[in-house]
Structures are given as C-alpha cells and as structure tokens.
Amino acid sequence: MSTLTPLRRPVRQDPAERRRALYHLASPVSVLTVDHAGQAHGTTASTVTLVSREPLLIGVALRPGSSFARLAAAEGRFVVNVLDGQQGDLARWFADSSRPDGSAQFDGIPWTADSYAGAPRLAGALAHYTCRLHSSHRAGDGEVLLGYVVRATAVSGPPLFSYAGGLVAGALHPARTTKETSAS
After folding, report:
1. Residue 79 sits in a domain of what CATH number?
2. For residue 56, with 0-12 CB atoms within 10 Å meaning exposed, 13-18 middle and 19 or more buried, which class applies?
3. Does 134 score more than 80 pLDDT?
C-alpha cells in the first residue's frame, strides 16, 4: 500500500493556468452505459484508462455524486462505448444534464443490449468493453470506478478525443522519430 507525503509548503499557482494546462491532456471520449432494474442510463466520460493487464481492469473517472456511479454500483455491471470520430453529437447528448431520465435518453439512438450487462452497446462505437464492477473509490473531488473487463470488441476508425476543452476527431498518424525529423 502506498501513501502520499504531504507537501511541506503549499504550491502557489494561478488556478486558471493549471486548468488551461490540464486541457492539453488528450483523451478518448466514451459513453458509459448501465441498465439497472430495467432502466437504462448513459453518461459521457473523457477519462477512461487501462489500469491493469492482469487482471484486465479499466478505470473511469466521474464527478462526485454521479448517477451513473450509483447505478453501476447497484447493478454491478456496465458497458464502456468508445466513440468514433463521427459521434460527437452522442458525446454532447450524454453530457447534457437536461436530457430525459431513464431509457428515454436512448430514443432514436441505435443500440443493442449487451448479453452480459444488459446495458446499451451503442452502434458505430469503435470499441465496447463489457465490465463487472471491481470497486469504486472517492478520489479528490471525483469518483473512480474500476471495471473488470469481461469482454471487449473493437473495430478500426478515427477516434473522438477530448482536447483543449473541445471534441476533436481525425485520422491518427504515427509520430515521426528523431531520425525522420533530422533527415527532412
């Protein structure tokens, strides 16, 4: 078990500058879905990451008091739908707090029920991770869910990213190496 060493002196920095710098963390955008007691629910997340390869665990960061976190804990299962670059409207929809509650939020959206979790698997997503809830942790001002990946599927395509406060889509190109750069 690791422990954090408290800072001896507080770090002083303009909070706006820190926030601006954090916008430069690019991350793929996903819609998390759950079905609890016959009611489906979805939410957009831009912080989903691999935590462990053995066992295969992914981590999802959510805001405190998240309805999704509460429903996923009650159900014990959920699905992560990693969005395609053309699914920005879905990301915005599931991030909008004024969307309808329950299954009505999926009206007009093509999906199928996951055979294990029962939660919506959104059509056109680049990847689907079917998860069993491993644990939930309060972390600072957020909540982190760890999901044991029961099944995963993926297709090729350009991903949707959260970057610099917005949604970005496009083809990925391999980074050039130093040798390639100096030869140009």
Report:
1. 2.30.110.10
2. middle
3. yes
